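dumping this here so i dont lose it
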């Protein structure tokens, strides 16, 4: 793999803690192309954080390392400022490793804007998450088929996303999504089924999942969504939706997050 122009990984580290009923950032560190906007403090003491990427998108050889430490009692929502563009590549690939560590009674809603893998792009992501018994996490990702308005549908080389979640060091969830259009017809049944976008949302640490599942099924019927909802062995929630608009699926993910939190 070819290194990026910096010859090293791009780093983003954010640490938070609860102090006097409010979530505050105790430490932040980033290197180009990352930046962090000043957090938006909400009336309930939680914060919204927007991650900026001052670049045209992910290029061949780019390596990104993201670390999020959501300390005890913290309540944080994190998103990005724009759609993630993954550009054409020759022989190499771009990678992102994300490590999330959550403390007791903490909450994180991590929902970057949709990802667009351009033709001939190659992207590999690994996400490792460590939860405490009382941690609450909502994690969502919207993946496009490509620049479909430019007739680029499933022309990327590879899009792989591996996620592993542990609660008190015990493995509770693992997802290994590997999309290689040259090997499978991504537009047909079992993949995108004629749609252009896929929303994957998982939620951990919430109660009354059976009631939440019923509400989500009602939403599926109300909005006529091509979607499904299921519970894991530990009664955590997995929700997936197929659609034809990144904006629409992103807004659905926000609505689902509000429903889950009650």
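and the seq i came up w/
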């Amino acid at each position: 793999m070819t290194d990026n122009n910096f010859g090293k990984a791009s780093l983003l580290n954010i640490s938070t803690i609860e102090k006097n009923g409010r979530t505050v950032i105790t430490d932040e560190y980033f290197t180009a192309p990352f930046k962090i906007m000043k957090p938006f403090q909400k009336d309930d003491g939680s914060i919204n954080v927007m991650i900026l990427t001052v670049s045209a998108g992910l290029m061949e050889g780019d390596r990104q390392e993201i670390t999020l430490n959501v300390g005890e009692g913290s309540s944080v929502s994190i998103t990005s400022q724009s759609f993630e563009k993954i550009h054409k590549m020759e022989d190499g690939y771009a990678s992102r490793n994300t490590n999330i560590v959550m403390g007791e009674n903490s909450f994180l809603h991590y929902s970057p804007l949709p990802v667009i893998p351009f033709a001939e792009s190659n992207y590999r992501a690994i996400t490792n998450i460590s939860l405490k018994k009382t941690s609450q996490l909502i994690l969502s990702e919207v993946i496009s088929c490509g620049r479909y308005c430019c007739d680029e549908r499933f022309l990327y080389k590879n899009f792989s996303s591996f996620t592993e979640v542990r609660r008190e060091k015990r493995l509770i969830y693992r997802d290994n999504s590997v999309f290689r259009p040259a090997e499978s017809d991504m537009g047909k049944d079992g993949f995108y089924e004629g749609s252009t976008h896929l929303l994957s949302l998982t939620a951990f640490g919430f109660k009354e999942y059976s009631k939440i599942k019923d509400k989500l099924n009602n939403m599926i019927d109300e909005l006529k969504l091509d979607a499904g909802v299921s519970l894991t062995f530990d009664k955590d929630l997995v929700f997936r939706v197929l659609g034809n608009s990144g904006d629409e699926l992103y807004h659905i993910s926000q609505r689902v997050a509000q429903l889950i939190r009650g």
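Residues 119 and 156 are 4 Å apart (CA to CA).
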